Amino acid sequence: MSALDVRAFTVGPVQENCYIVRPAAAGAATAGGAAPAIIIDPGEEAERLLDAARSLGVELQAILITHCHFDHIGAVAPLAAASGAPVYCPEIEQPVLADIMRWVPPGFGPFQSYEADHTLAGGERLKLAGMDVEVLYTPGHSPGHLTYAISPSPESGGAADSAREGAAAQSARPADGGDGALFSGDVLFAGSVGRVDLPGGEWATLERSIATLLRDFPAETVVYPGHMGVTTLARERDTNPFLSELRSVSQVTAEAHAPASRR
User: Fold this and answer.
1) What was the pLDDT predicted at 154?
2) For range 132-155, the mean pLDDT
3) Residue 178, Cβ neighbours under 10 Å: how many?
4) First vs last Cα of the chain: how many Å apart?
5) Is the pLDDT reported for residue 158 higher than 80?
6) What gap in Å lies between CA 126 and CA 133, rounded to an integer?
7) Looking at domain 4-262, which CATH architecture does it have?
């Protein structure tokens, strides 16, 4: 059983995945009676997402953004206004959120700009809503793209933890795939990867970002992507057609480090 309660909502015409996340063993509720949670990449359909939060009985205590393409941030401003939740945005891409319609293709929107409450560059460790969040810098699809590694805080205490939003946490990296998950935005998908033909995209950089995830996290780690279905690092490592070169490198490395008796 997963240690996280993750609810996915596919929103907008680009079919982007937004996630409401809380510990599966929810801690104490807030003073208003709702359990603390975070929301990741609210791309559109703000009222639907707010209704979902109410139905789940959660209070949104942080809004995390993986990157600032319009399909991932279109509902940020109305959600922040309605919930009071602070917005955590990739530092490099903060100007896009602050002037959103300048970057939106014709035919989409209108969306409301928002000045991020916090900016992240990667390497931060946050404690939010009873969870530990490790912020990973994973560029390649966009210049400031972040991936969030989230696991329940060992000392989770519900509202008491969430009151320390933004404080430095102990390691958020899951000890095994059952304790935490990766929220990969548009870096890694089930059977695919993020496109690199948009401004700031670059294949070699994206490949290095994915290689880092494969190297640093357990193979069984669950991956919640920004589009399409849920997957695992192991499944993508072994079957994703875009990762064939990484598989070849991994095999060569494994053979080089194998005992002589096994060669």
Assistant:
1) 82
2) 95
3) 16
4) 38
5) no
6) 5
7) 4-Layer Sandwich (3.60)
Structure tokens at 202: 């670059």
Structure token pair of residue 74:
């279109």
Find tokens 């990739």 and name the residue: 90
The CB density around residue 110, as the number of other CB atoms within 10 Å, is 8
Q: Inform me whether the pLDDT recorded for 162 exceeds 80.
A: no
Over residues 80-121, the pLDDT tens digits come to 999 999 999 999 999 999 999 999 999 999 999 999 999 999
- Entry field: residues in the chain: 263
Per-chain mean pLDDT for the chain:
87
- Amino acid identity for residue 60 in this structure: L
Q: What is the pLDDT of residue 256?
A: 39
- Please write down the long-range contacts of 28-34, taking CB distance under 8 Å and 24 or more positions apart: 28/157, 28/158, 28/159, 28/160, 29/57, 29/158, 29/159, 30/59, 30/158, 30/159, 30/162, 31/159, 32/59, 33/57, 34/58, 34/59
The whole-number average pLDDT for the span 130-150 is 98
What pTM was computed for the model? 0.86
Q: Are 151 and 180 in contact (CB under 8 A)?
A: yes
CA angle 128, 129, 133 (to 5 degrees): 35
* CB 116, CB 67: distance < 8 Å: no
**What's the rounded mean pLDDT across residues 56-66?**
97
Domain map (residue ranges) of the chain: 4-262
Burial class (CB in 10 A: 0-12, 13-18, 19+), 166: middle
Neighbours of 201 (CB within 10 A): 18
- Residue owning tokens 């990762």: 243
- Tally Cβ neighbours within 10 Å of residue 39: 29
Quickly list DSSP for 152-212: E-TT--THHHHTTTT-B-S--S-SSTTT-EEEEETSEETTEE----STT--HHHHHHHHHH
